[in-house]
Amino acid sequence: MTETIRFCRHCVISNQRPVASQEYLRAPGSEPDRIGFDAEGVCAACRVAERKAATDWRAREATLREFLEPFRRFDGRPDVICPGSGGKDSVYAAHLLKHTFGMHPLCVTWAPHAYTAVGWRNYGAWLAGGFDGVLVTPNPQVHRLLTRLAFLNLLHPFQPFVLGQRSLAPRLAARFGVPLVMYGENDEEYEGRAGWQEKKETAPVETLRLGGVLYEQLLTDQKLDPADLEVYLPPTEEEAACVTVRALGAYVPWQPQAAYYFAAERGFEANEERTEGTYSKYNSIDDRLDPLHYFTAWIKFGLGRASYDAAQEIRNGHLMREEGVALVRRYDGELREATVLWAAEYMGLAEADFWAAIDAARAARPRLWTREDGAWRLRRAVWETS
User: Fold this and answer.
1) Which residues contact 335 (CB under 8 A, 6 or more apart)?
2) For 230-254, what is each residue's pLDDT tens digit?
3) Is the confidence at residue 100, as pLDDT, over 90?
4) Which CATH number is correct for 23-384, 3.40.50.720, 1.10.10.60, 3.40.50.360, 3.40.50.620?
């Protein structure tokens, strides 16, 4: 656990930012790994951005074309699975695979907890661009249960979605006989190390935890059947062995803003007003639970949605650091009352129990939070250190 809070000299991320870890091993009280900082006080993601700026992308594209060649099919079957939601990045990824690189993608979507109206329209517009798609919607009762458990045990209500986001595509690829999965954005750009897309999470079922609870305990305590949890499980070793997983962002210069402009020309809609918790309108707008996901990140790590947005825009040259700091100060930690009421009802919680879980998480993180005059505040904020 990183005790001394430091902020990157280049962007607005702190050394509390988590990096992808084994979701299936998360137990109550456990902490994920954190992003690295170098001796000059610069985060690993900013160093990746520097290397990205110096990359010969023509050479990387040639490498990608060579890599794709053995996977190509000409018999009518898909040769690559493109995971996505219909957001800006999945629109860009699917079009690149089909129209730039001549592949035959099958688009696979793990449904959000609850679609926003704009998210559902964007999903339809994505496929209407000329793609086959498979939408997998998990049992709503089980999904709500796991979301509640993840919120109460881990303050991680988005975990059920994350599990499907990482595991569904490679599992379906193995079952459909598709040898390749290509995600769009490369998580290495945000974590400074190999992205989760290239890490194969496999583990014996008896060691798995969902919502912080052991698999066998879910079956007994929650009266679930193995079939209720099958869709959440990671690929088996046999499934993982027959599927290759990569991210397009490792081969093409990926930028969220550029992906947005590309997608907007093909039917993608942004929010009409800024997204809750940040200043932007086009990032992660398909799931009604997204605002709570970023709010709980603010509680656990002192970094909310505006911090994540501003950090990547600073690295991509679209914001000055001073602008990013001001935006973080204004919008980080925003959670509207309507979202609280909806999320509590979705998880089957009284509003008082919802806030009790939030307060308990703050109290358990004294390095981040202090309570003064009956109100919580961050001990160290980026605008106080700039």
Assistant:
1) 276, 277, 291, 292, 295
2) 999 999 989 989 999 999 999 999 9
3) yes
4) 3.40.50.620
Query: Does residue 1 register a pLDDT over 60?
Result: no
CA quadruple 85, 91, 95, 97: dihedral positive or negative? Answer: negative
For residues 77 and 372, give the distance between their C-alpha atoms in angstroms, rounded to a whole number.
62
Bridge partners of 134, per DSSP, are 108
Please state whether 242 falls in left (phi above 0), alpha (psi between -120 and 50) or beta: alpha
d(C-alpha 242, C-alpha 215), whole Å: 25
Partners of 132 in beta bridges: 106
The pLDDT score that the predictor gives to residue 385 is 82
368/297 Cα distance (integer angstroms): 12
d(CA 54, CA 223): 55
Structure tokens at 372: 């003064």
Global pTM value:
0.95
Q: Write the CB contacts of 140 (distance below 8 Å, at least 6 apart in sequence).
A: none
Region 42-56: what's the mean pLDDT?
95
Parse the chain into domains and list their residue ranges: 23-384
